[in-house]
Design goal:
25 helices, Glutaredoxin
């Protein structure tokens, strides 16, 4: 009997027809293991994971392997995107035991959920020094049957060591200029000056580090920080990791040159990179950055938006190729012959030169002569109209290929990131459709994911909320998205909803230690360890995301408890930033905002007044780190409550507007820190200069300030 058929998770549903007798995570599975006196096989993966699919085809669809699993184990399948807490706890054990991690994650547990043997992908036969999966199963079963005491001792020791792990919190002191300068120096040492990015292969897009570099440049004037951000952005945008036809980024590059990607496309990567490129344009006026930001936004709108108005999690790496077999990257790669079939001889030659398609190919795994499209040559070497025609024809032809599968579940945290990115990109580039999409996704989160007490559900699918509770990153990233909407739209209701979520962060996710945050709520399901990880990985950690949202909320409302909590949470950045800056990029970016204030900008003017729109747009284009913005009319401003919040009623305007008046009957702008403001101004150029606006608010060109 396979118990996954009723799951909402597309990943679990992929395994619903396996001969393996799968159980979902839950007490019932462990009770069954106790009843039968057998260990638990925990298999964790996600829908877009290439090697998860490989192991499924090789082992979980194999009847002989399934017979072993069904006889000697209780097998539990977990979607890591639904249960990041379960994934985090056991991945910590895998990494501690083996020195590496990844998915699929394969862990053997006692019936009390204590781990005792670990791995990731296991092949169907011995390979490269790795045992076959059946050999692993036989070995674990023999140990369970014949050396139970030893297994119990190992499991207890591992569980005890996990429980004793302690994260240094930097004594709750937010980093100062010295720590941030040390972090920049550390990044400089790891920077790949030839290819951009940091470290070697595999190379992941450093969206959060780019945000830190941009903010550091804005605060200090460091040209080195800006150069690293700009060069990395250009190298990625010209590489194979970026979809040159349809926009959007793959998960990572398998090489240091950004040529061959791991082809899965994740919502969180593209949301973070859309925002990073929009901010890169804001700092430099780069046409390439503007184009990539918009194309990435359009990719999310076209291929990830759900019927309900939110955004799906991911597209698979694999799809059906010309030979009828599923393979990684088949949807995206090209041979010169395929170019000729679509474009004819002359335009195929242009396309090959423009996109780096060679006779020998750049992607050997895709077959002879197969290439990943890149932009190896400078723009302007080919006729722009002809290139646009070639690109559109290739895009249309590719659309006829079998498309990669889509994991269409909605993850709250990742939609929060998408809301922030689309709201800002829509405002920067005069694309109201992007802002409307951000509002639509936010509305869905409120309708489906938020209960009457403002508790979040982690996922939904097809308009139905899932069963799993939200974790810290959900509360923090959704709050971040709502705060961005408040700045872009001027609607105070988004600030109110952010406040509801952040109240939960303060009440249910904080620990007793100074500044400590936990990934799960105090009333969440108990695991062998309460997960707590402040390091940024593919997304901002819940810890650093919460610090950023708390800081922005405090700047919008004047709430001292929220600011205090943010600064205490940033203590971990003091501890980790100088040592491992690549893995705390969002924390460093938030610390830059804290050092800068962040700036609080209020714009008051009559609705429809062109001057109000100009000042609002200039405020949005400010490079001041983490600046928050309120826009409205003086009549709509309301006094703040004792807690520093607005009344919470729908339509209430932003507290930063309280007592802000026009100047001589004209639109006026206020620049403040900690609710202490400079004199109001009606001088747009002076306002732009004070906020470090580098692009012309109308043309987008760089304008000296």
């Amino acid at each position: 009997m396979n118990r996954l058929a009723e799951s909402q998770s597309p990943y679990l549903l992929q395994h619903a027809d396996n001969p393996v007798d799968w159980w979902p995570w839950g007490e019932a599975a462990f009770e069954e293991a106790r009843r039968r006196d057998v260990p638990v096989l925990l298999s964790v993966g996600y829908s877009a994971c290439h090697w998860c699919h490989v192991m499924a085809h090789e082992s979980f669809e194999d009847h002989a392997t399934a017979a072993i699993l069904n006889r000697y184990f209780v097998s539990v399948k977990v979607d890591r995107e639904e249960r990041p807490d379960v994934d985090a706890v056991y991945m910590e054990a895998v990494q501690a035991a083996t020195g590496q991690g990844g998915w699929p994650m394969t862990v053997f547990l006692t019936p009390d959920a204590e781990p005792f043997y670990f791995g990731t992908y296991f092949p169907p036969e011995p390979r490269h020094g790795s045992p076959s999966f059946q050999q692993v199963l036989d070995g674990v079963n023999q140990a369970w049957q014949g050396r139970r005491g030893e297994v119990a001792e190992v499991a207890a020791k591992i569980t005890r060591e996990l429980g004793e792990r302690h994260i240094g919190h930097g004594a709750g002191q937010a980093p100062g200029d010295q720590e941030l300068s040390q972090a920049l120096l550390g990044l400089t040492r790891e920077y790949d000056a030839k290819h951009g990015g940091f470290g070697g292969a595999p190379k992941f897009p450093p969206s959060m580090v780019i945000e830190f570099l941009l903010r550091h440049h804005a605060r200090t004037g460091s040209e080195g920080a800006l150069q690293m951000a700009a060069d990395t952005g250009e190298r990625m945008a010209r590489g194979g990791i970026y979809d040159q036809l349809g926009g959007g980024f793959a998960r990572y590059s398998v090489d240091r040159e950004w040529v061959v990607p791991h082809f899965e496309k994740m919502l969180h990567d593209n949301a973070l990179l859309c925002r990073a490129y929009a901010h890169l344009w804001r700092a430099t006026g780069s046409e390439l950055a503007r184009r990539v930001a918009l194309e990435t936004a359009d990719f999310m709108m076209r291929e990830l938006r759900t019927e309900q108005g939110a955004f799906a999690s991911a597209l698979d790496a694999d799809s059906e190729g010309p030979d009828g077999r599923s393979s990684e990257g088949a949807y995206y790669v090209w041979t010169r012959e395929q170019l000729r079939e679509v474009l004819g001889e002359a335009d195929a030659e242009l396309a090959a030169a423009h996109y780096g398609v060679t006779e020998e190919g750049t992607f050997p795994e895709g077959g002879e002569g197969t290439s990943v499209l890149q932009l190896p040559l400078s723009d302007g070497m080919f006729d722009a109209g002809r290139v646009a025609s070639v690109r559109q024809r290739l895009f249309d032809a590719r659309a006829e290929r079998p498309a990669p599968g889509r994991d269409d579940k909605v993850v709250a945290a990742w939609n929060g990131l998408a809301i922030a990115a689309l709201a800002e990109a829509g405002a920067y580039f005069d694309r109201p459709d992007l802002v409307e999409a951000a509002v639509s996704a936010a509305d869905l989160l409120i309708r489906l994911h938020l209960d009457d007490s403002a508790r979040l559900t982690r996922t939904s699918r097809d308009g139905r909320a899932g069963a799993n509770a939200g974790v810290l990153e959900d509360y923090a990233d959704v709050a971040e998205g709502f705060l961005a909407l408040a700045s872009v739209t001027g609607e105070g209701v988004w600030l109110d909803f952010a406040g509801f979520l952040l109240d939960h962060v303060l009440a249910r996710f904080t620990g007793e230690e100074d500044g400590a945050l936990y990934d799960t709520a105090s009333d969440a399901e108990r695991l062998i360890r309460r997960p707590q990880d402040p390091t940024d990985n593919a997304t901002p950690s819940g810890w650093t995301a919460a610090a950023g949202a708390l800081l922005s909320y405090a700047a919008q409302t004047g709430s001292e408890p929220h600011r205090t909590a943010a600064l205490r949470a940033l203590g971990v950045v003091s501890a980790l930033g100088p040592r491992v800056p690549r893995f705390i990029g969002w924390g460093l970016a938030v610390a830059e905002a804290a050092l800068d204030g962040p700036r609080e900008v209020a714009v008051v003017g009559a609705e429809g007044d062109p001057a109000r729109r100009a000042f609002h747009r200039a405020a949005l284009l400010s490079t001041a780190p983490g600046a928050v913005i309120a826009v409205g009319t003086p009549a709509e401003a309301v006094p703040t409550t004792a807690e520093g919040k607005g009344s919470g009623a729908s339509g209430v305007e932003l507290p930063l507007l309280a007592d802000r008046l026009l100047r001589d009957g004209r639109t006026a702008a206020y620049i403040c820190r900690n609710f202490t403001c400079d004199a109001p101004t009606t001088d747009l150029d002076g306002f732009r200069a004070a906020l470090g606006v580098r692009v012309d608010i109308n043309s987008g060109d760089i304008k000296s300030t």
